[in-house]
Amino acid sequence: MGPARSFKVRTHLGNSFYKKWHHLLWKRLFPLQKESIGHRSPKQLILCELNAENLFISLEYYEGGDLEQLSESQWRKLALPQLRRQQKPLSKIWGLSEAILDINPDVLMLIEVGGRESLENFNYYFLKDAYTPHFIETNSSRSIDLAFLVKKDLNLKAKAMSNKNVKVSVGADRGVSSTARFSRDVAELHLLSNNRLELILLLTHLKSKISTDTDFQGRDMRRAEAQALAHLYRKISAQHPETPIVVAGDLNSQLQSFELEPLAQTDLLDFHEIRGTPPEERVSLIHFDQTGKAHPQVLDYLLVSPHLQNKIVRDQSFTYRYKSFYQTVHPLPTTVHQRYHMPSDHFPLVLTLRF
Known about the structure:
disordered N terminus; six-stranded mixed beta sheet
């Protein structure tokens, strides 16, 4: 399945004949679309970070058949009754699938995964079962967890683990300290070759900007998590000084913010800074305020240890933009309605390494 049908068209399609024609035409026009971006030399490794926005996929009542032919109503009915409201719209799942197949990553780092079953269903039914799933159950109260998908044909062994029980000291820099845990986790993936540790990936989803009575926009918690993440990174770096590390995730703030200052003070480098990406090309989410005004934001990051500074393939590392049927890049959304029709409210980040 190639990258990019028109997501808006998909959402409103009601005629199964048209949908079938649309899909067959696309396969004829672009039978090998997954090579369009993900083409690489044998010595390159493609990483992708993506907040998939509530990736809940329940197929409890699925008995086979072509998922391409289903309406959104039929799709929701495949889920358990108590999960139907959470079920991610089918059009958006196909949109994610097409983007991922276009990028063709070796390792996909996913945020907001609605459980192990959702991850396995997404891989099997929408990504051609090309990946080995590594699901990490986190501390999330909303059951939006972290996961890695590792290409089955990747000549590296993968080992995943959790850091969700690491202590987080909230308010320590103000002298009013309380102990907590990460809002979600820092999921850790080791990639090994012949028992040699080649790369460490740390994936996180820091506290959201939802306020509480004692924490405006989650800033205190997010800063505490950034401190704990920076400490964890330094600890792992000291344990494996020769091994490159990538810290990835939705940090829910800009790296230059006060909350993320502890992370910015490490030796980690933003791949966008290394390649000199223009500001508008770094945007990973468009926030709309109560008046409907658009605010471009950079919330997602791929930070690399100094080992990797000279190993980035600059022209193949970028913030991905979703595409239309004809492979044209969709402009950034200017209305809430346009953003809703995107596969996710976040854009994927792609990092290609000489490896």
